Amino acid sequence: MTGTGGPDTPAIAVDGLWQVFGEGARPALSELLTPGAATTDGVARRLKEQGLIPAVQDASFTVKEGELFVIMGLSGSGKSTLIRCMSRLVEPTGGSVLMAGEDILAASKRRMIELRREKLGMVFQHFGLFPHMSVIDNVAFPIKMKGVGLKERRARAMEVIELVGLGGREDAYPRELSGGQRQRVGIARSLAVNPDVWFLDEPFSALDPLIRRQLQDEFLNIQATLRKSIVFITHDIGEALKLADRIAIMRDGVIVQIGTPSEIVLNPVDDYVGEFSRDIPKGRHMTLAALMEPVRGETDAGGPELRTAMTLDDALSACALTFQPMAVRDGDGKVVGVLRPEALARAVGEAHSS
Amino acid sequence: MTARSPLKGALDSKGKQAAALVVLVGLVCLLATPYAPWLVAWPSVLTVPMSDWISQGLGVFFEAIKPAMRWVSWVLGFGMAGANWLLVSTPWVVVIGVTTAIGWYLGGLKMAALGFFGLLFVLASGYWVESMNTLALVFVSVPLALLLGTAIGILAYEVSRVKKAVEAVLDLMQTIPTFAYLTPLLLLFGFGPVVGLIASAIYAAPPMARNVLLGLERVDSDIKEAAVMSGGTRAQQLFLVELPSAMTQIMVGVNQSLMAALSMVIIAAVIGGFNDIGWEVLLTMRKAQFGQSFLAGLVIVVFAIVIDRMSGALAQERRRYSTRVVWWIIVASLVAAIALRDILPAAGTLSYFGGVADTVDQSVGDFTRNYGSTLDTVKNTAMFYVLLPLRIGLDDAVLPFTWGFQWTSAMSAWVYAIGVVVAAVLAWQGRLTLGLCLLVLIGVIETGVTQLPWIFVLVGVGALGWVSSGWRLSVLCVGLLGLILISGLWDRALLSLYLSGAAVFTCAVLGGALGLWAAVSTTAWAVIRPVCDMLQTIPLFVFLIPMLMFFQIGEFSAFLAIIAYAIVPMIRYTRHGLVTTPDDMIEAATSSGATEWQILREVRAPYAAPTILLGLNQTILYAFAMLVIAALIGTTGLGQSIYIALGRADVGLGITAGAAMAMLALVADRLVQGFAEERRNALGL
After folding, report:
1. Hey, is the C-beta of B629 within 8 angstroms of any chain A C-beta?
2. Are residues A309 and A274 in the same domain?
3. Is B233 an interface residue toward A (CB < 8 Å)?
4. pLDDT of amino acid A88
5. Where are the beta strands (DSSP E) in A179-268?
């Protein structure tokens, strides 16, 4: 092993990653990337002029140990290509990908197989389950590749099957399962070898909204206990904001912004990013730090206790607590009920976020 | 065609130019032929003796590798003798029991019954031993074919550089007529069943290779990537994940491979030397014992159906049937075989259908006696008024003996004059291309296909190629035909072209009509479909029997046999194209107030055009395949050359005639594909 990950070494460090499709992409790119050459945009334009397709352009970011890093973008933005570069399902044209300090792109074929058997797990949009294997054989497959004996690998497979809540269905075949159950198998299989780095390529996109939400919640629960370093691909900004520690937004092969969910919502770098978060309820992601003004003179120390990290929704509820309940009248002016203001604030916040 | 969109306008003018050129060349040829006979008959001085060259070249090569091949033959001989011994010496009760058990395992009661009664019929027919001999050949050749096919399929899939080349070779292997395989093999391996074995292994490999490749390519990319990410090596990915995931498609390959092998094994009977069921058909056919021949043919059909349906079940998502029943059936048959060994008659001695054969003979005899004149009238009408004029032209075909009067040059002039007038009217209506095509057609019928000047044929095909796809195809087609021209096989090629052309035309009209009928009426389809299934299961050889029974040896029987075999794809594709029009298109047309008939004409038919063209393409290839087999019952042309070459063990002639046949098929295939592609593009599919 070449990489010796100290405590500060990021789990994944991607630097200047390019993926260019087309005949003779590699020499064309390396010629254009000579030091002091054009900007990313300029290089991409020159590549396109040569009939090449720059699917990922100069991507750079790091994923910290235990961080859930989401890459968000519309179809064709290059996000799927990017994750395939990182897992080396496609060969990147230029740049570097370090995992725990080890250069993945320089790894030999054999080392790559070893890494996949020990350190990497991946979940696919259309599940990628092997149709001729039962659930348990599917899940045990990566362990089988390591050469672990039947009994031991079945035991380990059962553990992860229980973890994803599929206990009792281990002998079923993929065709007998629902979409949600299939993706649970996919997740179980990707976790079977207990990987350090977990790639998920639009894992929930092919599912119904209700099942999707359910699996998102369970995914967060699993992550809360396992603390994997995750790269998660999605085209759904809601999903990205819900799950991510940090989000990278991609457009036309370029990462246009990287930030925490609230940074993305509150400070979009351009209209493109802003357009995504326009329909997102600000109250849920915006914190008071962004809204408060500097202290000038005396401030009333009373009222609810507010903190800079509070979201607007929470702050609103807190403020509403200070008001008395108010009467609600019918059409004739008769009092028919009582409204507590904090209930109003909470209801409005929930209505926005659903 | 009227020019509305700019695209159509451009195509139209391309079509017009091509048609005008062909008419012009035709006119020149027509005027010049009396003075320049070399326009029709390619001068023998310029003929390149390719056949001889190939014979000599291959002769040397074959001599060199013969010892090795003879050794292979010797080894395979053992395998075959083993399989043969196993099948023939196993009591028939057990063979039937095992078949029934396999049937149960694959498809439950229905399939078990098929196996049981199918083999019972074979037993009762008295052809048990012959059938087992045939089956032994299939059993040895199919594993070879499957291995070879799988290896080729994997190679093409793994090494993307060779994929194109492999596909071209597979195309070629499937267009080269079956008989053409036999001659070189005969020289290499010597007379005997091993030739049939190897020929069928080679012939049955391409469908397997194709399906393996297709199956592997169709495996979901997520599944492939999941295998990679699981840390599998390339071999593990391929054998543990990709091949098993492609199993359904691969089983389709197994099914096709089995059927191809059976078909070839039966065809290989013409070599003789092996007491198999194909030989029995051939022998009885030659002796004009049509009843026996019919019975033996029926045995082949039963075999084909049992093998096809059982192996077809492999390729379908199916229920699991209890293996306990399977063992019970096998054990029961073993017990029966032992307990009843002294009571049960030996397999070959049974013959319950001898009476049937005689009855068939009798009734066919009666029928031909009673209705002989009607049959002759049918045959003669088709020959005199359609086939013969097409073959040698009106000017030679119309005689007092046939049409009741002598064709004169004045009549020719009249026909041309009328043609010109009609063409002028059409041109005036803006349908110039149609008018020009009409003129070409009249010219062809006046002259006869086999007497067309070669320049005219080359220019005509070149023009078609140009219109259908572009100058590349045009050059390819002219080049291939040019090779046939200088090889000295031109006359025979034209004969083949004429007969298959007539058959294909009939198939297109008749099959198109049947397909249309099946598309509009589900009742019709319920009747036509099983007939189509049946016709596609029957080995080529068997088609000849009924034709011979009623119409004796000759071109007309061959013509009918070709139609019976080649019409199926036309029916299927026409129907399929017409019924698969997307619902929203139909709904849009209905809500626009279109009647059923209008929808059919305005929406379904244009949408179905590319599919129907593909059906036509298949029909052409089927017709060529059958043309060669039909040489057995007396057609002239390339098929006959191949058959003669087989008899004389003349490798050069066998290969050149086979290659010429394949080239004709290839040209026709590319032309139709070109038109289909153009239609698909026009529809944005």
Report:
1. no
2. no
3. yes
4. 92
5. 197-201, 229-234, 246-251, 254-259
